[in-house]
Amino acid sequence: MTIPADDVVVPERVRAIAGHAEVVPVWRNELGGLTFRAGAFFIKWGPRHKEASMADEAKRLAWAARWTPVPEVRDHGETDDEEWLVTTALEAESAVSRRWIAEPETAVRAIGSGLRALHEALPVEECPFDWSVPTRILRARERGIVLPAELRDPPPVDRLVVCHGDACAPNTLVSDEGRWAAHVDFGSLGVADRWADIAVATMSLEWNYGPGWEPTFYEAYGVDPDPDRVPYYRALWNAM
């Protein structure tokens, strides 16, 4: 995921949704999706993919909003070729905005404490969504991905939580005061071992802030590194 250049082509669908509001590109993902700021809203747009569904994300956001801060869904839709999701803008910035890239310790602490807060807030027993290893392996197989044999036998579950599903640094929003404020990008939210999130969150720190920030994350989350679960869940993420 990257911040797109200013010369990105704005899709016709996005211009139609934005109306007279200025459209500013803010994010691009590896699947060809784009996110734009349009006044008081964010418009997430992309080509249809088997790997992700904005309709599914809208359902997950609506469910999670009962317990944790997330953007409000205002609209979503799809055609045979494209899909889109419109959410309200929150008074916070991504943990990888220019400001927080320049203040990595504050950002990393917000990511760690925010992920712990998310895991504590969302009720496992009421969650209708699953992100367990068997479910992820099945979805990978449906997309034609054959995982290595060693990834089909996960470590025992440490603690079941409702996982974010893409806990990389950009998906934590940080307040002006430098504290966790909300989360975004819930397309894969579901019940799983908390290490499925922790492993990916810590892996993303070096991508965004450079090496050496994992201890700060673990302190903020309130857990010691797991020498078995971290490498397993990172390998599973990278294989898919």
TrEMBL record:
<feature type="domain" description="Aminoglycoside phosphotransferase">
    <location>
        <begin position="43"/>
        <end position="230"/>
    </location>
</feature>
<feature type="binding site">
    <location>
        <position position="171"/>
    </location>
    <ligand>
        <name>Mg(2+)</name>
    </ligand>
</feature>
<keyword id="KW-0418">Kinase</keyword>
<feature type="active site" description="Proton acceptor">
    <location>
        <position position="166"/>
    </location>
</feature>
<dbReference type="InterPro" id="IPR002575">
    <property type="entry name" value="Aminoglycoside_PTrfase"/>
</dbReference>
<keyword id="KW-0046">Antibiotic resistance</keyword>
<protein>
    <submittedName>
        <fullName>Aminoglycoside 3'-phosphotransferase</fullName>
    </submittedName>
</protein>
<dbReference type="GO" id="GO:0016301">
    <property type="term" value="F:kinase activity"/>
</dbReference>
<dbReference type="GO" id="GO:0016773">
    <property type="term" value="F:phosphotransferase activity, alcohol group as acceptor"/>
</dbReference>
<dbReference type="GO" id="GO:0005524">
    <property type="term" value="F:ATP binding"/>
</dbReference>
<dbReference type="Pfam" id="PF01636">
    <property type="entry name" value="APH"/>
</dbReference>
<dbReference type="InterPro" id="IPR024165">
    <property type="entry name" value="Kan/Strep_kinase"/>
</dbReference>
<dbReference type="InterPro" id="IPR051678">
    <property type="entry name" value="AGP_Transferase"/>
</dbReference>
<dbReference type="GO" id="GO:0046872">
    <property type="term" value="F:metal ion binding"/>
</dbReference>
<keyword id="KW-0808">Transferase</keyword>
<dbReference type="GO" id="GO:0046677">
    <property type="term" value="P:response to antibiotic"/>
</dbReference>
<keyword id="KW-0460">Magnesium</keyword>
<comment type="similarity">
    <text>Belongs to the aminoglycoside phosphotransferase family.</text>
</comment>
<feature type="binding site">
    <location>
        <position position="185"/>
    </location>
    <ligand>
        <name>Mg(2+)</name>
    </ligand>
</feature>
<keyword id="KW-0067">ATP-binding</keyword>
<keyword id="KW-0547">Nucleotide-binding</keyword>
<dbReference type="InterPro" id="IPR011009">
    <property type="entry name" value="Kinase-like_dom_sf"/>
</dbReference>
<keyword id="KW-0479">Metal-binding</keyword>
